[in-house]
Amino acid sequence: MNQHMPAQHQKHQPGDEHEMKPQPDYEPRYRGSDRLKGKVAVISGADSGIGRATAVLFAREGANVAFFYHDEHEDAQETVRLIEAEGAKAYAKSGDIADRKAVFSFVDEVLEKFGQIDILMNNAAEQHYQEEFENIPEEQFVRTYQTNVFGAFHLTQAVLPHLKEGASIIVTTSITAYKGQDVLMDYATTKGALLAMVRALSGSLASKGIRVNGVAPGPIWTPLIPASFPSEQVREFGSNTPLGRPGQPNEVAPCMLFLACEDSSYMTGQVLHPNGGTPVGG
């Protein structure tokens, strides 16, 4: 049965979770089993959505979590509270993920606070609705790449020298990298670039024992959705999937956990597809 969300719209990217109705589901669905005990995870964009759900799940599994976010301070404070409620330590810093100096400074602060980094999740993103390719402003195209691709590039370069054998890098790509999205064309191309990054970087780092994998979510109920689409399209969001509804962030976070922990020790250069049942290939 198709499930519809209430029509709604937010005026800024990447959106605020506390303004959404209904609120996304971030709560882990099961008790932790210390799969990340003693680990430190760095996540971009963990103030809300998939990033928040993953941060809380990582914390439940024993990891301390540091995250970089844009300017959604209320959401970020709630994520810190949720991490600490799981008995883990949290560190959050706001800034522009496209600012290389800010990203490197953040990583230095994480190392000063926690002394190590074991897991990197490149997750921060923005997207903009536009029906005609020729009407995409150059400024928007450039900005989307700066956030989605250059942000992952900067953060990975900053973290990589500090990763040891057994570390894991996870990249949030998208179903749009495989199927396209005719109203998110610039966003889709960035997610294709990130997919290529997973495949290329995994080969480069395999000899060092560092795994690189991706997750390609389908339509997931996060702040990006009301911040991107017209309100009436938000109402139909995800209803055309085989499961007939959008996914929730806590339905994606277990993919991140699987790739972060030793359960996936024989996987690198791969992508998981929590997308509501849509077949993808390539």
From TrEMBL:
Highest rank taxon of the organism: Bacteria
Query: InterPro entries from the xrefs?
Result: NAD(P)-bd_dom_sf, Sc_DH/Rdtase_CS, SDR_fam
A GO MF label: oxidoreductase activity, acting on CH-OH group of donors
**According to the UniProt record, where is the region Disordered?**
1-32
Q: Which SUPFAM superfamilies match?
A: NAD(P)-binding Rossmann-fold domains
- Which residue intervals are annotated with compositional bias (Basic and acidic residues) in the record? 13-32
* Residues making up the signal peptide according to the UniProt record: none
* Alphabetically ordered keywords of this record: Oxidoreductase
* Family membership: Belongs to the short-chain dehydrogenases/reductases (SDR) family.
Question: Mind telling me what this protein is named?
Answer: Short-chain dehydrogenase/reductase SDR
> What organism does the UniProt record list as the source?
Nitratireductor basaltis
